[in-house]
Amino acid sequence: MTTVDASAGSAVPTEEAGRPPIVALVCSAGGLEAVMAIVAVLPPSFPAAVVVLRHQSPGYPSRVPEILGNHCALPVVAASQGLEVRGGVVVVVPPAVHVLVTNENRLALIASDGTPPYRPSADLLLTSLALVAADRTIAVVLSGGGHDGATGASALHDMGGLVLASDEQSSKHFDMPAAAIARHDAVDFVLPVSDIGAKLMELVENGHVSQPT
Questions:
Q1: Which domains occur in the chain, in start order?
Q2: Which of 121, 148, 154, 157 is catalytic?
């Protein structure tokens, strides 16, 4: 694991060509509480788009947008086909789909047919961000079983994005963060959940959303 000095990061305008920084929070079992703690400290002026992906059974409706909306000063919406990724808005990936971010800065939803191991897929979301928005994306890998997100986090990091992971003590299930951390130099910061919101504000508001050049 390497640790990036935030003061040395590349300055990226928060609205370059109308495209804001993106924070992707990915998690599974035990991760919703972590997401709630993180978004609860983000101010109404937070300029980044926030995409929340949590593994969910496709057979049940999700209450995650409602739950986060009660703990967050930012507006919270469910992801939909073609939705523009906008700063200052929390977008929640719904069940039964995978979500990609397109080159047009919009969401593409793909039905998660069959029984892939992780739905929605954090790897697919983060890999799409690596391809189209690495220099303005911060991924955060939170509590969950399995290893979803590790490949996508590695791809994002290799393309210049930043990756954070929750530490073992604050992760109810450490498998997902541990899998990302185990990837060689894929994670820039390993932090307690209680510190992640403040770190995101520091990185985003100071324009340090990509690796040093």
A1: 21-205 (3.40.50.180)
A2: 148
